[in-house]
Amino acid sequence: MLDGTDALMLSEETAVGLFPCETVRMMSEVAESAEGSPREHGHPEAITAAITDRVAWAVAHAAVQAAEDLKVAAILCPTRSGLTAHRVAAFRPKMPIAGISTSPQVLGGLCLVWGVQPLLVPDNADADQLRQAIALARAAGLVRDGDLVAVVFGSTGPRAGSTDSVRIVRV
């Protein structure tokens, strides 16, 4: 938990033991206690910067910082691979994160990422990524008219996972 894990699972004896409900309850208490002070832990980009895209981590960090400073209603992450939402979630923002994708497989993976609500882009969706993300967040009840949102995304291009932009928009 202190390293920023997204999900916990039972294994071996704890999954089939005599006290499964109590085991899950205890795991939940430990997780909630550890998450009570997320700012005391190291920055996730410091751990992964040597092996991943430093620009993407910096943009995710800046997005969360701006979102918290401005008290936005939600952080919207249109994503092809899920990496944008993963990076944003690593900073444990106080507001909800929407992982928005056309891929059910990507959204399935995002179901296990801390704080991310996966939202499927319908087949008949608008080509305007920003308008589409806001419409999905509104439909999911994450934002209302007049709210500020942060939209974190990658520029158009062939390489998925190249998070390089953040916009703050009033809904």
Overview of the structural elements:
This is Pyruvate kinase C-terminal domain-containing protein. With 171 residues, this protein is an alpha/beta fold. It has 2 domains: 1-41, no CATH class; 51-170, Pyruvate Kinase, Chain: A, domain 1, CATH 3.40.1380. It contains 7 helices and 5 strands; from the N terminus they run ααααβαβαβαββ. The protein has a 5-stranded mixed β-sheet, sandwiched between helices. α6 (104-110) links the parallel β2 (97-101) and β3. The longest helix has 17 residues, at 54-70. The relative contact order is 0.16.
Count of discrete structural domains: 2
Order of helices and strands: HHHHEHEHEHEE
Secondary-structure arrangement, i.e. CATH architecture of the largest domain: 3-Layer(aba) Sandwich
Tell me the strand order in the biggest sheet: 3-2-1-4-5
CATH class of the largest domain: Alpha Beta
Shape: globular
Mean pLDDT: 83
Terminal residue distance: 34 Å
Number of helices: 7
Number of DSSP E strands: 5
Q: Give the strand content.
A: 15-25%
Biggest sheet: strands, sense, closure? 5 strands, mixed
Per the CATH scheme, the topology name of the largest domain is Pyruvate Kinase, Chain: A, domain 1
Question: Which stretches of 5+ consecutive residues score pLDDT under 50?
Answer: none
Which percent bin holds the helix content? 25-40%
> Which structural class matches the secondary elements?
alpha/beta
Our Rg estimate from Cα atoms comes to: 17 Å
The H-level CATH homologous superfamily of the largest domain, spelled out, is Pyruvate kinase, C-terminal domain
Domain Pyruvate kinase C-terminal: 58-169
Protein name: Pyruvate kinase C-terminal domain-containing protein
Pfam family, one: PK_C
Organism: Candidatus Accumulibacter phosphatis
